[in-house]
UniProtKB/TrEMBL annotation:
It comes from Azorhizobium oxalatiphilum. The keyword Transmembrane helix applies. This is Transmembrane protein. The chain crosses the membrane at residues 35-53, 73-93, 113-131, 143-164. Keywords: Membrane, Transmembrane, Transmembrane helix. Residues 1-27 are annotated as: Disordered.
Amino acid sequence: MPASRSPDVSSRIGRSAMEQAPHDASRGRGPVLRILHPVAGTIALMTILTFWLSTVFSELLGSQAAVVAVKLAIPWGFLLLIPALATTVATGFRMTRAPSRGLVSAKIRRMPFIGANGLLVLIPSALYLAAKADEGVFDAVFVTVQAVELTAGAINIVLLGLNMRDGLKLGRRRAARQ
Ligand code: HEM
């Protein structure tokens, strides 16, 4: 009967589209990405945390030579941090289903703040502080820029930490589904 066939056909079409969706969405979410993404994210977080802690400890406990060594080392650390962050973001988007919702969308919303903080505050202030430390000038401007850098660094540590926490929740959910 055509009248009874029509809803049946549309429900079959609907079901087959739904059956395809998880298959299509699972493209690009293979084991390499699932390993690379958290590893790169953890490297990025640990690198910023190391910058922050070594700055605080050298300022509080270390000699002037220790402060200079830390300030001169941090720009080299960007050679690890920047590719690690870029890899984290690229692999994160590769694993994201469109449209993103919930925890993934919260993770994506944090990234512009992390990026802007890094490009506009952390990199310029680290380069400025390294140049000043190299000249042996630790004046009021140095202290102010150092305070700004530590604040921006702390914000990025918290935001990256939240992304890691949400990522681990997503990973646990996926493991529970499998
Ligand atoms: C634009 C930024 C990001 C996006 C779009 C994103 C997206 C995702 C997605 C979709 C997953 C779930 C993968 C799955 O299990 O199927 C995930 C997992 C994860 N993410 Fe991210 N992420 C981003 C940034 C970050 C950052 C910055 C970190 C760390 C600092 C991070 C750490 C993790 C971790 C640890 C997991 C769990 C992996 C597992 O246990 O399987 N993510 N992310």
